[in-house]
Specification:
The chain folds into 2 domains: about 220 residues, Cytochrome Bc1 Complex, Chain A, domain 1, CATH 3.30.830.10; about 180 residues, Metalloenzyme, LuxS/M16 peptidase-like (Cytochrome Bc1 Complex, Chain A, domain 1, 2-Layer Sandwich). It has 15 helices and 13 strands. The longest helix is centred in the first third of the chain and has 20 residues. The radius of gyration is 23 Å and the shape is globular. The termini are far apart. The mean pLDDT is about 95.
Length: about 425
């Protein structure tokens, strides 16, 4: 079991050490939690892209990458993700664990110092970010936003969330829009960076064999030296019940139609019945042994792929499938029939056992990757819990059929989205 030490090092800032001796690498991540808002999504997404380009000590990417090579090829990067209705600006450094440094170097402290420099001491010209650096990453962000259209499966999923949560922050992309990205100036980005340091909730995670006292001390001193304002509140609105079912149809030149069905789960973190909902979702469409795969895809041949997933922070169930447009009604009805079976308890003991084993394997695989472990504990922190993956696996194994059915019966259809070929085309 992971040895976890979690403490508050300053107002709104928590440092969590997860001691794990299985890896030859260590991972340090610094995560800034901000409310997901349309007017700030793009500028926040741009921050890690620009900050990664250099710092005062290593003022360009060439110098920074040379320093990383000196640190046994350490990796430093950043990005932005969405958890519930929080936009999380993340920075991380993966480095050789201290045990394997050839001359006994304190790799944790060295890399923590470099990461601290990148976040807190960027290269500024006349007090703002350099126009050329901002322009380069503004273009790269626009390309990332445009690329979302090329992956039609991801595009359909995103469009379902936009339509289903049109009046909720969850419907906003964590990358923002192309128009918002184009409007970011060096001054606007500098203001966003200062606002992030001054007000964001911060979750710092260190996964290493050692305790990392030097890392904790460094970030404690750094944050306590800041003039922090009131910590931003990152709350996720959970709508427990669906209204009238909405159907949205969109046409693009696609060779395979995408059907994404959105449901209100009625359950979200930190509710006690989240594990039961996760298992119900897995029985429905979470593995090759699930009802959607076995019946809708295999037996009825109505889908190229069909799976379900549970957005636990927001309390949504999404069912995604690739279909022929002509099979839209049949596929929709077949998927709803499988959901009705789970809600009625019409699944075998073997189906439930297979779903439990699938979930347990997924949880245990998390512990095989530093990146997955860091992401797991970040999700736990957002949810207000701090369970190890092994504990989640035990919770699932202890669930009864009655608990799973009770959770499944709370699922209500909300929005169905179909992405089909352009009208008049054969798809």
């Amino acid at each position: 079991m992971d040895r976890i030490v979690r403490q508050t090092i300053s107002e709104g800032i928590r440092f969590t050490s997860i001691r794990d001796a299985r890896f030859k690498q260590s991972l340090l991540s610094v995560n800034f939690l901000l409310p997901l808002q349309r007017e700030t999504a793009a500028v926040n997404a741009l921050l890690p892209m620009v900050l990664r380009r250099g710092c005062e000590d290593y003022p360009d990417m060439t110098a920074l990458n040379s320093r990383l090579k000196e640190l046994y090829g350490a990796r430093l990067d950043g990005g932005v993700i969405k958890r519930g209705e929080a936009q999380i600006v993340s920075f991380y450094c993966e480095m050789l664990d201290n045990r394997y440094a050839l001359e006994g170097e304190d790799m944790l402290t060295e890399c923590a110092s470099l990461l601290q420099s990148v976040i807190f001491r960027p290269v500024l010209k006349n007090g703002v970010f350099d126009e050329n650096e901002v322009a380069i990453e503004r273009h790269n962000l626009s390309d990332l936003i445009d690329a979302q259209l090329n992956d039609k499966r991801a595009y359909a999923s995103r469009r379902l969330k936009e339509e289903m949560c049109r009046d909720e922050a969850f419907g906003i992309s964590e990358l923002g829009s192309r128009e918002e990205a184009a409007a970011v100036t060096p001054q606007v980005l500098t203001d966003a960076w200062k606002r992030m340091l001054a007000s964001a909730q911060v979750e710092i995670f260190l996964i290493s064999e050692g305790e990392g006292e030097g890392c904790e001390r460094l970030f404690t001193q750094t944050f306590r030296a800041l003039s922090r304002t009131q910590t931003a509140v990152c709350e996720t609105q959970v709508i427990r019940h669906a209204g009238k079912v909405k159907t949205v149809e969109e046409h693009l030149p696609v060779s395979q139609a995408k059907l994404v069905m959105g449901f209100r789960a009625g359950i979200a973190t930190p509710d006690a019945d989240v594990p039961a909902m996760q298992l119900a979702c897995n029985i429905l469409g979470g593995s090759p042994n699930s009802k959607l795969f076995a019946n809708v895809r295999e037996a009825l041949s109505l889908c190229y792929y069909c799976f379900s997933r549970f957005e636990r922070q927001k309390g949504l169930i999404l069912i995604e499938s690739g279909i022929e447009s002509a099979n839209y009604q049949k596929a929709r009805e077949a998927i709803l029939a499988q959901l009705a079976d789970v809600q009625a308890g019409d699944f075998t003991d073997d189906e439930m056992k297979a779903a439990v084993m699938s979930l347990q394997n997924s949880y245990m695989e998390i512990s095989d990757s530093l990146a997955e472990l860091s992401a797991w504990y970040l999700g736990q922190a957002v949810a207000g819990t701090m369970h190890a993956p092994s504990e989640a696996a035990q919770e699932v194994a202890a669930l009864s059929r009655e608990e799973v059915v009770a959770a499944a019966r709370k699922i209500e259809p909300d929005t169905f989205y179909l992405l089909a070929g352009e009208k008049g085309e054969e798809v």
